[in-house]
C-alpha cells in the first residue's frame, strides 16, 4: 500500500499540485499527480512560501496553455496599476479627513519622501506596475536601503508602508487578490538617540544662560528636560494647559474640536491621547518667568516669536553642542554628546525619572505611550547606576565589600 503523503495537495484552476522544497530550500511544484498530463516537477525559483504560491498559480495557467486546455488569448494579463498612479491613489486616500482613514499632515509628508525614493528605485529597475511589486521585490528594496546606510527603523517603516499600499490596492480592486502579501519583519529593539547625562544638561543650561542671545534656549532645554514633552508639544503649550494651583500640565488632543480647526491651531498629540503630568519645580519656575503673549503660547523663540522645531534643533547643534564638544568629547566611532538632539532630552527625562523611582505606569502617563515597550527604549541606565546596583547585590551571603572575597574558596 503506497505511503500517504504528509502534505495536502493544492488544487489549482486547471491542475493539482504538491508544493515541495529541494534540500537547498527552493520550492518546486510536483505535478506528477495529474495522470492525464505530464506536468513534471518544475522549480518555482524562490525560498519564500507566499511567493512560491503566487508563482504556482501562474504555472498552473502556463501548463493549461501548453496542453491546449485553454487558448493563449484566454490567459489574461493580470490587471494592475502604474507605480506612480498607485502612489497618487494612496496619497489621496491618506489626505482624507482622519475620521475616514486619513492620516496627519506630518505622516503624509513622510509618505511623500518614501514615494520619491521608491519611484526612483522602480524606474532604475524597470518596474512599472504595482502587480510586479511582490514580497521578494519589496525585500530587495529593503536591501537597497540597507546598502544606502539607512537606519533599521527607516527600512522597517518603509517596507511596511509599501506592503500596506499593495494590500490596499488589492482591497480597492486595482490589483488581483494574488498580489497581496504579508511581511514579517523583525522590528529593531534598540534606540539610536543619544541620552544626555545630568552633568551635560546642567552645563547646557548654564552655557545658554551665560549668553544673552541664548537665554530663551536655556528655558527650552530646562522645560524639555523636566517634562519629557516633545518639542512640538512644548511649542504648542498654552497658558490654559498649566494649572498652577493643582501643579499640573494637561495636554489635550484637539483634532476633533471644530473651533480650533477653523483657526488652524488645533493641537495634534502623537498617539491621539490626552495626558496630564505633575509640574517639576524647575519647570514651574521657568514657566512663571515667561512673559504672557496675546496668542496664549507659553514658550517663545529668540525674538519673541513662536517656537520653531527646526530652529530649536539648529541652535542646539550649532551654538550649544558644538561649543561644548571639547568639554564632553565623543570617542571616535561611538555615539556621544556630539550626536545629541532635541529628542534626546525626552530620553533624558525618562531615564532620570526611572532612576529616581518612577514606575512604568507613571512613565506611560507622563510620556503618553500606550505600552511599556516604547518606554523601555527611552530608559538609559548610566554606568554609575549599574556599578551602584551591582555593589548592592549580596550574592554570597556576606556583608559585601572587600570581605566577600573570603567567601570564595
Protein architecture, described:
By secondary structure, the chain is mainly α. It has 3 domains: 10-74, no CATH class; 83-179, DNA polymerase, domain 1 (Orthogonal Bundle), CATH 1.10.150; 198-378, hpI Integrase, Chain A. It has 15 helices and 6 strands. A 3-stranded antiparallel beta sheet has the order 1-2-3, covered by helices on one side. It is elongated.
Fold topology:
Layout: E1 10-11, E2 16-21, E3 27-30, H1 49-66, H2 83-94, H3 105-124, H4 135-147, H5 152-171, H6 198-209, H7 215-227, H8 231-235, E4 242-243, E5 248-251, H9 258-263, E6 275-278, H10 281-288, H11 309-324, H12 344-355, H13 360-367, H14 372-378, H15 383-392
Antiparallel strand pairs: 1-2, 2-3, 4-5, 5-6
Helix pairs in contact: 2-3, 4-5, 6-7, 7-10, 7-12
Envelope shape: elongated
Mean pLDDT: 84
CATH topology name of the largest domain: hpI Integrase, Chain A
What's the end-to-end separation, in Å?
A: 67 Å
User: What is the H level of CATH, i.e. the homologous superfamily of the largest domain?
Assistant: Intergrase catalytic core
Order of helices and strands: EEEHHHHHHHHEEHEHHHHHH
Q: Give the number of DSSP strands.
A: 6
Strand order of the largest sheet: 1-2-3
Number of helices: 15
* Coarse structural class: mainly alpha
**CATH hierarchy class name of the largest domain:** Mainly Alpha
Helical proportion? 40-55%
CATH architecture of the largest domain: Orthogonal Bundle
Fraction of residues in β-strands: 5-15%
Q: How does the major sheet shape up?
A: 3 strands, antiparallel
Amino acid at each position: 500500500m503506497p505511503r500517504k503523503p504528509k502534505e495536502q495537495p493544492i488544487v489549482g484552476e486547471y491542475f493539482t499540485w504538491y508544493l515541495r522544497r529541494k534540500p537547498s530550500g527552493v520550492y518546486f511544484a510536483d505535478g506528477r499527480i495529474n495522470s492525464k498530463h505530464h506536468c513534471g516537477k518544475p522549480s518555482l525559483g524562490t525560498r519564500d512560501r507566499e511567493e512560491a504560491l503566487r508563482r504556482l498559480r501562474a504555472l498552473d495557467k502556463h501548463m493549461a496553455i501548453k496542453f491546449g486546455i485553454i487558448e493563449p488569448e484566454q490567459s489574461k494579463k493580470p490587471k494592475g496599476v502604474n507605480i506612480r498612479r498607485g502612489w497618487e491613489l494612496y496619497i489621496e486616500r491618506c489626505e482624507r479627513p482622519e475620521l475616514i482613514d486619513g492620516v496627519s499632515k506630518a505622516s503624509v509628508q513622510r509618505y511623500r519622501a518614501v514615494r520619491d525614493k521608491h519611484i526612483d528605485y522602480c524606474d532604475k529597475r524597470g518596474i512599472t506596475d504595482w502587480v510586479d511589486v511582490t514580497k521578494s521585490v519589496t525585500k530587495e528594496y529593503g536591501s537597497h536601503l540597507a546598502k544606502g546606510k539607512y537606519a533599521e527603523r527607516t527600512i522597517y517603516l518603509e517596507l511596511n508602508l509599501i506592503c500596506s499600499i499593495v494590500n490596499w490596492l488589492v482591497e480597492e480592486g486595482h490589483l488581483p487578490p494574488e498580489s497581496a502579501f504579508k511581511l514579517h519583519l523583525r522590528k529593531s529593539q534598540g534606540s539610536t538617540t543619544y541620552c544626555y547625562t545630568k552633568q551635560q544638561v546642567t552645563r547646557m543650561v548654564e552655557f545658554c544662560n551665560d549668553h544673552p542671545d541664548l537665554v530663551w534656549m536655556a528655558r527650552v532645554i530646562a522645560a524639555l528636560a523636566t517634562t519629557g514633552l516633545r518639542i512640538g508639544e512644548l511649542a504648542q503649550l498654552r497658558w490654559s494647559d498649566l494649572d498652577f494651583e493643582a501643579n499640573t500640565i494637561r495636554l489635550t488632543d484637539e483634532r476633533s474640536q471644530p473651533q480650533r480647526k477653523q483657526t488652524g491651531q488645533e493641537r495634534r498629540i502623537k498617539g491621539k491621547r490626552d495626558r496630564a503630568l505633575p509640574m517639576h519645580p524647575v519647570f514651574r519656575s521657568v514657566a512663571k518667568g515667561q512673559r504672557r503673549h496675546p496668542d496664549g503660547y507659553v514658550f517663545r523663540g529668540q525674538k519673541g516669536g513662536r517656537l520653531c522645531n527646526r530652529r530649536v534643533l539648529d541652535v542646539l547643534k550649532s551654538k550649544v553642542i558644538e561649543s561644548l564638544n571639547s568639554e564632553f568629547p565623543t570617542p571616535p566611532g561611538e555615539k556621544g554628546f556630539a550626536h545629541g538632539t532635541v529628542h534626546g532630552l525626552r530620553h533624558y527625562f525618562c531615564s532620570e525619572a526611572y532612576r529616581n523611582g518612577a514606575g512604568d505606569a507613571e512613565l506611560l502617563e507622563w510620556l503618553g505611550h500606550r505600552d511599556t515597550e516604547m518606554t523601555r527604549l527611552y530608559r538609559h541606565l548610566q554606568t554609575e547606576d549599574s556599578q551602584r546596583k551591582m555593589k548592592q547585590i549580596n550574592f554570597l551571603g556576606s556583608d559585601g565589600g572587600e570581605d566577600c572575597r573570603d567567601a570564595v574558596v
